[in-house]
Amino acid sequence: MTEKIKFGTDGWRAIIADQFTFENVERVAYAVGMHIKEEYKITDKASAEKLPILIGYDTRFLADKFAERAGQILASMGLSVRMTERDVPTPCIAFAAQNQPTSGALQITASHNPPEYCGIKYIPHFGGPATNDITNNITRHLGDLPKDYEFAHVKVERFNPTPPYLDAIRNFVDLKKLGAAKIRVGYDALFSTSRGYLDTLIKEAGLPVSVLHDYRDPLFGGGMPEPKPEFLKELTALVKQEKLDVGLATDGDADRFGVIDETGTALTANQLLCLLTRHLVKNRGIKGAIVRTVGTTHLLDKQAKLYGLELIETPVGFKWIGEQMRLKDILIGGEESGGVSVKGHIPEKDGILANLLVLEMMECEKKPLSQIWKDLVAEIGSDFVAKRADMHLTAVTQKQLMERLTSAPPDTIAGEKVTKVGRSDGLKLYLDDFTFVLLRPSGTEPIMRLSYEAPDSSRLDKIMADFKKQTEAILKDLKGQIGSQDAGMPEKAGTASH
Q: Is 332 part of any domain?
C-alpha cells in the first residue's frame, strides 16, 4: 500500500475509506515521526518536549479522528504532541509551527478537493510547505511502521493556536483604519476552517458583514470548498441583492482565497495577485522581489519592470515559492490557483490575510474594485487573457506526448514564431515575453494541463485552436503507434478569462 502514498505539490491526498484509511494515516504519521527524530535530533523525552509536533485538521469527515490517530502514533514514538482544539486554517497551524520552537506540524486536510477526499500536509518548523528533500525523506520511511505496531490509545494534549495567529494578523493589518472605510462585505465561509477567523476580524474592524455557510458541513453543501465562481453563486447573488462592495471567500483550509467585486464579477487569482502587488508597492511602499509559478500571469513581469523589482519564476507548487521567501527578500509570492503570501508573514499561502489586504486596498484607494483593476491596467499599459484546457490522457500517452513535444517543439503556433522554449516544469512555449502556452502533466490525475496567456482574447483563441490542431495530430500518430484509446483535448475545457 505504501507505493500508493505519494506526496504531490502540497502533501498527500486520497479518497476516504479507499486509500485514505486509518492504516495509511498511521504509516504516514510514523514516517513523519522518523523524519522528525532524524532532522531535529530527538533522542529522549527532554529533547522531544523542547520541540513538540503540532497537529491540526480541517472540517472534513473524520478529519479530527485521523488527526487523533496520527497524534497517538507520534506520541507512542516518544514525541511530544499537541493537537488543536477545533478544526483550524492551514496558515494558523503553520504560524504556530513557526512562532514557537517546534518540530513542525501535521495538517489533516485535502484543501479545496471534493468532500470524499482527505489528506495530510507536513509543515516544517519554518512555517511553509515541505520541500522535496523533506517529503522524499518522509517517503523513504513509509514502509518502516512495524507490523502489528501497538500504540497508546490516549487522548492527545490539546492547545489553541488561534489567539497568537489573530494577533499577528492584527499587527499586519490596521483594523481600526480598515473600519473607517465602512466597506460593506459579504463573506462565504464555504463550510471551511476560516469561520471564526476572517469574519471575526472583519467584525472587529467594525465593517458590516453578511455571512454565508459559517458552520461545519463535511459535504460542503453538496459542492466543493473551492472559491471559484461555480461554487460562489450564493455569494455573488448576495453581493448583487444587498448591493455590497465586495464578496470574500476561502477554500477548505483557508490557504486560498476568492473575491467577488461590486458588480458580482469574480476576480481571478491572477488579477488578485497583480492588484495586491500594486497595493503593497503603491500604498504600503514596500519593496522586494515578485515570485510566481511558471503558469502564473506575466502581467506580474510587467509590474516588476514598472516598479523596478526582480521577477522570479518557479515550478508549480507553493513549496517553491515558500522556499524563495525563506531565501530572498520577497515582496509577494503567488500562484494562479489562488495562493499568496507577502513579506513579513509566513512563507505559506494565507487566504485570510489575503482577503483582509483586499479590504485594506479598497480603503486606501477609496474606489470600487472594478475601477481599481481598470486603474492597474491603465498604469501598466496592457491587459491579459489567460485560459486553461485539459487533455484527458493515460500516463503512457502523457509521457509519449511530452517526449515528442520536448524533443521537437513546434516552430510556429497560429503563424507566430516560437521565440523561446522553457523546460523547468513541463514545456512552456513563448511567442513573446507575454504570450505563452504551457503543458504540464498533472501529478495527481490522468490529465495533461494546458495554460495559455496573451494580451487579447482574439489572438489567444487563434493560438489555442492551432495548438489544439497540432497536438491532436501528434496524438493521432501516437494512437497508431501504441493503440491508445485516449480522448483528445476538449474545446476550451476549464477556461478562465484573466
A: yes
pLDDT (tens digit per residue) in 196-229: 999 999 999 999 999 999 999 999 999 999 999 9
The rounded distance, in Å, linking the Cα atoms of 24 and 132 is 20
Residue 431 lies in a domain: yes
495 — pLDDT class (breaks 50, 70, 90): very low
Give the percent of the chain with pLDDT over 70: 95
Residue labelled with grid coordinates 505559506: 348
What Å distances lie between residue 276 and 55, 101, 412, CA to CA?
Answer: 31, 31, 35
Residue 348's φ and ψ, nearest 5 degrees, are -140, 150
Domain ranges, residue 94: 2-162
Q: Which of 327, 328, 298 is nearest to 313 (CA)?
A: 298
Q: What pLDDT score was predicted for residue 2? A: 63
Question: Could you report the per-residue pLDDT of 5-43, keeping only the tens digit for each?
Answer: 888 767 899 999 999 999 999 999 999 999 999 999 999
Residue 128 to residue 341: CA distance in whole angstroms? 10
Q: Are both 89 and 111 inside the same structural domain? A: yes
DSSP state of 145: S
Collapse the DSSP code of 349 into the 3-class scheme (helix H, G, I; strand E, B; otherwise coil) and give the result.
Answer: coil
CATH (domain of 252): 3.40.120.10
Does residue 3 register a pLDDT over 70?
no
Query: Do the beta carbons of residue 169 and residue 345 sit within 8 Å?
Result: no
In a shared domain, residues 274 and 252:
no
User: 337-341, 373-377, 437-441: which has the highest mean pLDDT?
Assistant: 373-377
63 found inside a domain = yes
Which helix (H) or strand (E) segment holds residue 52: the answer is none
Which candidate, 437, 444, 465, 453, places its Cα nearest to that of 497?
Answer: 453
Q: Cell match 489567460: residue?
A: 386
Q: Are residues 8 and 137 in the same domain?
A: yes
Contact (CB, 8 A) for 332 and 273: yes
Pairing of strands 330-334, 340-342: antiparallel
483: left (phi over 0), alpha (psi -120 to 50) or beta: left
Residue located via cell numbers 490516549: 154
Q: Compute how many other C-beta atoms are within 10 angstroms of the C-beta atom of residue 378.
A: 10
State the SS3 of 184-235.
CEEEECCCCCCCCCHHHHHHHCCCCEEEECCCCCCCHHHCCCCCCHHHCHHH
Average pLDDT in the chain: 93
In this structure, the answer to whether residues 208 and 121 fall within a common structural domain is no
Tell me how far apart the alpha carbons of residues 431 and 454 are, in angstroms, rounded to a whole number.
Answer: 9
Give the whole-angstrom CA distance, residue 151 versus residue 487.
48
Query: pLDDT tens for residues 251-268?
Result: 999 999 999 999 999 999
Let me know whether 373 and 399 are in one domain: no
Rounded to the nearest 5 degrees, what angle is found at the Cα of 118, between the Cα atoms of 112 and 122?
A: 90
The H-or-E segment that residue 417 falls in is: strand 416-417
